[in-house]
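REVIEWER CHECKLIST
Item 1: Sequence provided? yes
Item 2: Single chain? yes
Item 3: Sequence as submitted:
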Amino acid sequence: MSNTNRPLSPFMLGSTYKPQITSVLSILHRITGAALAAGTLLLAWWLFAALSGVRAFGVFQAFRESFIGQFMLFGWLFSFVYHLLNGIRHLKWDLGYGIEMKRVYRSGYLVIGGTIVITLLIWQTGAK
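Item 4: Structure as written out by the authors:
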């Protein structure tokens, strides 16, 4: 009684799924949201260290200046900028603007480019 004419998943057919920019940006939006939440724990550590005195703040500063600390800070900055720009993009969609597929793709590429440029500009400004 099985129906052999029903459609199969692309994985069942042996083909490879090609990610589209819309799905990649959606997944990246979720990942950056989780990274921002995790980064909030570092922000809390920084605040508690600042309130706890010079020694505690020195421990935090040593971590922040380490390779892992710098990597995490850069990732948090990238996540913040991406989440902000993509959030603005979604707000425009909620208002009914830019929901045609051509504009969806164009705004997606603008978000990616804007995230890279703004993140690097902020990072370079903070490094001086």
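Item 5: Key structural point noted by reviewer: The helical segments are 10-13, 21-52, 54-65, 67-94, 101-127.
Item 6: Recommendation: ____
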